[in-house]
Amino acid sequence: MAPDPSNSSSSSFILVGVPCLEAFSACLGTLFCSAYIIALLGNGVVLLVIGLDTSLREPSHCFLAMLAVVDVVMVTSVVPKMLSVLWLNSAEIGGTACFVQMFLVHSTTSEESGVLLAMALDRYVAICQPLRYRAILSHQTIACIGLAIVLRGLLVMVPLTWMVTSLPYCHSHVIPHSYCEQMAVAKLACADPRPSGLYSVAGSSLIVGMDVAFIAASYGMILNTVLGKQSCWKALSTCGCHICVMLLYYIPGIVSIYVQHFGSTMSVPAQVLLADLYLTLPTMLNPIIYSMRTKQIRGALLKMLFSRKVQA
User: Fold this and answer.
1) Residue 175 forms beta bridges with which residues?
2) In degrees rounded to 5, what are phi and psi of residue 180?
């Protein structure tokens, strides 16, 4: 039985889960729980291996560790509460917790895009400028890139969070979503939510547009460099896998934002599921596609497992 919104405190919200699919809540919860476990295990293994093996200190490994941290924060900010809604019918979320969740979700998506751009830059320098690799991507440069990625996510989200939290919520507190998505929350306000919506769309479009343009340029120069060489097919295979995962991240995200802001014939359940998959599917695939396909990380993991087996 769904909780009565009228019984919730005025400073809290009610998460619906996936509207119109309440009969499948247990199945959806199982799917997202499985994805969450895989994401935690995959990213946890990546962080453990990179942290324990001192030979994995190349810039590419630092970026993989950054990606794993962002993925863990992103998926953890959403899935546990989503599961409590789908499985336990614990739909109420405090106002502060809702806005914190909204901040974490949207700032980490910006940071994830920044890390993907940094990884594309790393691959470009490694393939197109191999002799200057260590000079260009020094430890100081890596630290500055990481700081810039985090600051960009924070600087974009602080004004948006302030705009949404300052809106008066005097009517319905029922969010037709499985987490506190910014536009879904802002639409509940009794004041005009369009300024925050326009800011969100403009900021997201700018970040995604710039990052995708630079990523595409990096891969274009990489492919131009390797064409005709013996490593061509290997590079094409690796780049193809990376591009497919990036498309799974960028396309659902930008479609979800535009659909919710401009309206669409897409049903509400489809919109919510698209937004949920946007946050869970890449975090599950990233460790497999980016890290486990890396020879050094696979070797370090096998060495750790083998040494533990020998000691046992």
Assistant:
1) 15
2) -80, 75
* 3-class DSSP string for the chain: CCCCHHHCCCCEEEECCCCCCHHHHHHHHHHHHHHHHHHHHHHHHHHHHHHHCCCCCCHHHHHHHHHHHHHHHHHHCCHHHHHHHHHHCCCEEEHHHHHHHHHHHHHHHHHHHHHHHHHHHHHHHHHHCHHHHHHHCCHHHHHHHHHHHHHHHHHHHHHHHHHHHCCCCCCCCEECCCCCCHHHHHCCCCCCCHHHHHHHHHHHHHHHHHHHHHHHHHHHHHHHHHCCCCCHHHHHHHHHHHHHHHHHHHHHHHHHHHHHHHCCCCCHHHHHHHHHHHHHHHHHHHHHHHHCCCHHHHHHHHHHHHHHHHHC
What dihedral do alpha carbons 221, 222, 224, 225 form, nearest 10°? Answer: 120
The CA dihedral of 307, 59, 282, 187, to the nearest 10 degrees, is 140
Tens of pLDDT, residue by residue over 115-148, are 999 999 998 898 888 889 989 999 899 999 999 9
Quote the pLDDT of residue 306: 72
Which residues, 6 or more positions from 293, have their beta carbon under 8 angstroms from its beta carbon? Answer: 238, 241
* pTM for the whole structure: 0.88
Give CA–CA dist 18/20, Å, rounded: 6
Q: pLDDT digits over 63-89, tens only?
A: 999 999 999 999 999 999 999 999 998
Residue 54 has pLDDT above 90, yes or no: no
Residue 249's pLDDT band (cuts 50, 70, 90)? confident
